[in-house]
């Protein structure tokens, strides 16, 4: 099967929660922390950890502002993040096609 | 978006190595330990740990025989494993479609 089928699986994205974050950011363009937390049914701490991993990898930008006295945290995918996520999706599709057709991808 | 898009992501399968194992077993029907180790470029210990997780979940059967004096370990997906893997692939496809069309799946 030549190269390792798992090579395209970027662990920075593959972790379940981070896959959810990148998917929602791709659909919505940008999301508030509160929205992500509710959609993915996570604790603040858990979501915060995963957002930090994506931010440190340069896959998302995180901006913190205030609406009145209320802090507002917004996440937005970077160009790098979008590109890596597309590559990741293509790698995943390749594995899915392989698994469903029962034929190894040459 | 109603239910959590991550609900279908079975962590027993989603871990990168275990996704690779289930994909190869689906393509080949059954695989020897040595084959999996080479294809996925893993150490024996690492592969052994992941195989144990899948076996304990009832997703694969592991049989140990001898060819002459050489031990031979063969892995085969169970009916449950195949079913759970199909559900997992469908959930993954849903996320990929959502991310690529930019439209949340109702």
From TrEMBL, chains A, B:
CDD domains found in the cross-reference section: HTH_ARSR (cd00090)
InterPro entries xrefs: ArsR-like_HTH, WH-like_DNA-bd_sf, WH_DNA-bd_dom, WH_DNA-bd_sf
Molecular-function annotations in GO: DNA binding
Gene3D superfamilies on file: Winged helix-like DNA-binding domain superfamily/Winged helix DNA-binding domain (1.10.10.10)
Record Pfam families: HTH_34
Keyword Ligase assigned: no
Keyword annotations from UniProtKB, A to Z: DNA-binding
The Winged helix DNA-binding domain, residue ranges: 17-96
Protein name as it appears in the record: Transcriptional regulator
Source organism of the structure: Paenibacillus nasutitermitis
Organism taxonomic ancestry: Bacteria, Bacillati, Bacillota, Bacilli, Bacillales
């Amino acid at each position: 099967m030549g190269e390792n089928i798992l090579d395209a699986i970027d662990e920075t994205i593959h972790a379940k929660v981070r896959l959810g974050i990148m998917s929602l950011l791709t659909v919505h363009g940008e999301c508030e922390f509160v929205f992500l937390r509710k959609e993915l049914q996570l604790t603040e701490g858990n979501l915060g950890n995963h957002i930090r991993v994506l931010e440190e990898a340069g896959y998302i930008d995180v901006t913190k502002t205030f609406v009145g006295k209320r802090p507002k945290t917004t996440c937005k995918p970077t160009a790098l993040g979008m590109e890596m996520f597309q590559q990741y999706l293509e790698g995943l599709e390749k594995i899915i096609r392989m698994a469903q057709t029962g034929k190894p991808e040459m």
